[in-house]
UniProtKB/TrEMBL annotation:
<feature type="binding site">
    <location>
        <position position="68"/>
    </location>
    <ligand>
        <name>substrate</name>
    </ligand>
</feature>
<feature type="binding site">
    <location>
        <begin position="46"/>
        <end position="49"/>
    </location>
    <ligand>
        <name>substrate</name>
    </ligand>
</feature>
<keyword id="KW-0812">Transmembrane</keyword>
<dbReference type="InterPro" id="IPR000829">
    <property type="entry name" value="DAGK"/>
</dbReference>
<dbReference type="InterPro" id="IPR033717">
    <property type="entry name" value="UDPK"/>
</dbReference>
<dbReference type="GO" id="GO:0046872">
    <property type="term" value="F:metal ion binding"/>
</dbReference>
<feature type="binding site">
    <location>
        <position position="75"/>
    </location>
    <ligand>
        <name>ATP</name>
    </ligand>
</feature>
<comment type="similarity">
    <text>Belongs to the bacterial diacylglycerol kinase family.</text>
</comment>
<feature type="transmembrane region" description="Helical">
    <location>
        <begin position="54"/>
        <end position="74"/>
    </location>
</feature>
<keyword id="KW-0547">Nucleotide-binding</keyword>
<keyword id="KW-0067">ATP-binding</keyword>
<keyword id="KW-0594">Phospholipid biosynthesis</keyword>
<protein>
    <submittedName>
        <fullName>Undecaprenol kinase/diacylglycerol kinase (ATP)</fullName>
    </submittedName>
</protein>
<dbReference type="Pfam" id="PF01219">
    <property type="entry name" value="DAGK_prokar"/>
</dbReference>
<feature type="active site" description="Proton acceptor">
    <location>
        <position position="68"/>
    </location>
</feature>
<keyword id="KW-1133">Transmembrane helix</keyword>
<dbReference type="GO" id="GO:0016301">
    <property type="term" value="F:kinase activity"/>
</dbReference>
């Protein structure tokens, strides 16, 4: 029989927020990605991208941040399970880091595809957005 959870809905929300806060304070890469997301939002607002482009950009931001958080969670569990050097620990961390790299590169490509045409238009028009 499944054990009843000792967490209420509210406390589940609170522990999830605690996890987010710890990731932001303890992981430099998470802070870098939040800064990059802020730049993307400012650029999108300045270039007045379409609603569809906003949705795609937010989806990319969500995917990159989610991948980074999962990578952090995997690293933490690996450090718990294998504080000593181990080939499987290395493999697990490398694959998790690879996932972040993959989604970051695809997102960068999408960002360039969205931003380059309006930036070129801006340059040709002499600065008027
Ligand atoms: N226990 C281990 N056994 C073998 N190799 C390891 C181990 N821990 C880490 N490594 C190797 O070192 C790399 C970096 O691991 P580390 O835990 O320092 O991640 P990190 O550099 O903090 O990652 P991030 O920058 O995403 O936070 C891993 O990708 C892996 O190749």
């Amino acid at each position: 029989m499944p054990r009843p959870s000792r967490f209420t809905l509210l406390s589940s929300f609170a522990v999830a927020l605690r996890g987010l806060r710890e990731a932001v304070f303890e992981q430099r890469n998470v802070r870098i990605q939040i800064a990059a997301a802020a730049v993307v939002n400012l650029l999108a607002a300045w270039l007045k991208v379409s609603a569809t482009e906003w949705l795609v950009l937010w989806l990319c931001i969500a995917l990159v941040l989610t991948a980074e958080l999962l990578n952090t969670a995997i690293e933490t569990v690996v450090d718990l399970a294998s504080p000593e050097q181990h080939e499987l620990a290395r493999k697990s961390k490398d694959i998790a880091a690879g996932a972040v790299l993959l989604v970051s590169m695809i997102s960068a490509g999408i960002g360039l595809t969205v931003f380059i045409p309006p930036l070129l238009k801006l340059l040709r028009s002499g600065g008027a957005v």
